[in-house]
Amino acid sequence: MRLEKILVAVSGKDADEEAVKLACGLAKKPKAKIYVVYVVEVKRSLPLDAVIESEIAKAEKILARAEEIASDKDYEVETAVIQGRDAGPAIVDEAMEREVDLILIGFTYKKRFGVFNLGRVIPYVLEEAPCRVLLCREPMA
Amino acid sequence: MFPEAGGSASFAHHAFNDTVSFISGWALILTYIATIAISAYTIPPYLGHFWPILKESPAAGTVLSMAFVFLLMIINVIGIRESSIVNVSAAIMDLAVQILIVVLGALLVFNITTLHAHIVLYWPSWENLFVGIALAAVAYTGVETIAQMAEETRQPTRRVPFAHILTAVTVLVIFAGIATVGLSTMSPTELATEWAHDPVAGIVHNLSIAIVPHEMAVKWFPAVEAQIIVTWVLTAVRELLPALVGLLAASILLIATNAGLIGISRVTYFLGRQGFVPGVLATIHPRFRTPWVAIIFFSAISIVLLIPGFFAPKAFINLGGLYAFGAAMTYFLAHASILKLRDKYPALHRPFKIGANFKIGGREIPITSILGMLVTAFVWLVLVITQTYSRWVGLGWMVVGLGVYFLFRWRKRHISNKITSTPTSFNDSQR
Questions:
Q1: Least buried of B65, B320, B405, B415, by fewest C-beta within 10 Å?
Q2: How far does the CA of residue B354 sit from the closest CA of chain A (Å)?
Q3: ipTM above 0.90, yes or no
Q4: What is the pTM (predicted TM-score) of this model?
């Protein structure tokens, strides 16, 4: 499997740590480049390039944590904040633009109305991403 | 060319200066406020098919209109995700029903003699004709929103021009058809009085009366089996079409009201970010991440505009005139911006250029922009001269807006000058 570029989508949840660690582990041998992205979802009542300071501050904090985790694994990552209407399409668009070989997403085990739920973003990425997608699910609580 | 939100205000900013950009943006906000009010005002008459009191009682209808605006205000402050599938499906169904109305009208009720008589006998005065042309701009409510989507669509250079052209052609064809059917089924007086607020419902009502299922089935099909099926189909169409139109029209108008709210908040954010209006209007809610102040403020103004609906029968015409007032100003400045940008940035990459250009001093000048400026200026003047409500409310809106703009800018400059002229403690300590 060709692995030159990996995109890790983080969302500020605990699962991000494992996802970043996994990406570093996978990238080490082929010396792949890792991009860690956080998507700020902009509501339709604002223009797409609206500056939402609280969200940007939150994104920077999350990405700084990702950089720390990667640094602990002796790996350097490139981080970016993306703004989009929906996280799913924004992640897929970013992956296509950067021509990544793998999208890695960590997620927490959760149920909705008693049924296991992947949320809104993961099914979209699984369906629309042109490259491989790796999901890293946290253990059940 | 400029795939960014802000619409005509953004173009005017690139072409001219801050003040012209503000005027365009402020006029655009007026059109959005009028759009919200008009769309909400016309929902209850269409729902009157199910609950007649909504059509018979101006008070009941107006209260419901205000309730819709209030509800959408809450939804947009919270930022509840809307389903694009629902929006697109409703639009497609609405278009399909309107096409069906035109086709049924052409087959069942179109009568060139009646149409001719209605046009000739009810031909308006020159003043009313010009006012009618000006008010017809309401048919294009929402077209300015296309430009606002430029920054978030893939391939904007291809899709935005296509969307504009498709909108222009679709509205022209569909409403020419609807108008032709309408004037074949009823007189302009009936259309402008009993069905003034729900004209399509009126057309469908008269269309339904013209459908005599069994008689038509027997006339068109000799086979008995075919007659049974066609009778059943035509009966279903006759019974269901008025209800379908009522439901679809109400849902489309609700979507249009919501689109007006979204448009207004985006333009306000643009003006706030440029420093043209107090920054409080561009405040983003820390939890909901929406421009809640702008949404609440302009929703409140839309609700105030609906108040005359309780007692003034001309409320709808007044709102239509107000929309046309703002739209004419906005489109005038958009056309002027095109001309100015051809002169200011002649070498700018223009992925879409409309034809019919002529050259002056090495610059390509589009005839359509000149015509557009002339027509929009004419429409605006007609409204200002003939429509008292549009004149005073529209001009009042612009005067208040410009007053706030210049005062705000003066204060900003004044505070900025004060900061730069005050000696700092560092300078003092150096001395």
A1: B415
A2: 27
A3: no
A4: 0.86
